[in-house]
Specification:
The protein is of the alpha+beta class and 234 residues long. The protein has a single domain (3-230), classed as Endonuclease/exonuclease/phosphatase (Deoxyribonuclease I, Chain A, 4-Layer Sandwich). Helices cover 23% and strands 38% of the residues. The chain has 6 helices and 12 strands. It has a 6-stranded mixed sheet. A 6-stranded mixed sheet has the order 5-6-7-8-10-9, with helices on one face. β1, α1 and β2 (36-43) form a beta-alpha-beta unit. α1 crosses α2 and α3 (122-132) runs parallel beside α4 (160-168). It starts with a strand and ends with a strand.
């Protein structure tokens, strides 16, 4: 049974045309047609609108308030969401950041999905990388099912966060699947900020950067989609 996931920083649903529209983001995601959607930089009411438009369940990982609304990461899913929790990755003096974990039911098994948005500071990301692989998060010994880690990591070089994640998980190789590594900004990509990591129990079958006229306007990021099956499945 295949699974399509997508990570998408929606930039508060504000497009390059200056227009803010959660419905437009939903239209983009309708084209992508993913089973699990990881959104970053989204407000609670925007995630709710998108989930209603798509008929998907959603969970919110609020890291701070923006304009009086909960703001952070959200996960939308066609699959049943069994449990959620939000981890604080904030570093003193920097913008609040977090990691939203959602356990979804895929083919009668649990899949642990971690939606992450790391900071823009070099030292900040080093602290966040160490927190990610800590026993209470990705290295939780109670996790027995596959892990899927995706989001906007704000890391375009081989920093500590990237090295730590690669030491624990496989990295979706954009060069192998797309022919190039850069994903941001959408109009003229020159940085690789959006990443997908996965357990060896999963097999990555396809990786796609969704670059259409609509996605080029809807946000400064492009949706990065991946298709997985369980390793060993034919």
């Amino acid at each position: 049974m295949s699974l399509r996931v997508v990570t998408y920083n929606v930039h508060k649903c504000r497009g390059l045309d200056g227009h803010t529209s959660a419905v437009r983001i939903a239209d983009v995601l309708r084209e992508v047609d993913a089973d699990v959607v990881a959104l970053q930089e989204v407000l609670h009411h925007q995630a709710e609108t998108i989930s209603t438009e798509l008929g998907m369940a959603f969970a919110m990982g609020a890291n701070r308030k923006h304009g009086g609304h909960a703001y952070g990461n959200a996960l939308l899913s066609r699959l049943p969401i069994r449990d959620t929790r939000n981890y604080d990755l904030s570093v003193a003096g920097r913008e609040e950041r977090g990691c939203l974990r959602a356990d979804v039911v895929w083919d009668a098994e649990s899949l642990h999905v971690f939606n992450i948005h790391l900071g823009t500071g070099f030292v900040e990301r080093r602290h966040q990388g160490r927190r990610l692989i800590a026993p209470e998060l990705l290295s939780d010994i109670t996790i027995e099912s596959p892990r899927l880690v995706l989001g906007d990591f704000n890391e375009w070089t081989l920093g500590l966060a990237t090295r730590l994640l690669r030491s624990h998980l496989r990295s979706a190789d954009t060069r192998l699947h797309l022919g190039w590594s850069r994903t941001y900004p959408g109009v003229l990509p020159f940085l690789h900020l959006d990443h997908i990591y996965y357990d060896p129990l999963l097999r990555l079958d396809k990786l796609s950067l969704w670059r259409t006229r609509k996605t080029l306007i809807a946000s400064d990021h492009l949706p990065l989609a991946a298709e997985f099956t369980m390793a060993g499945e034919v």
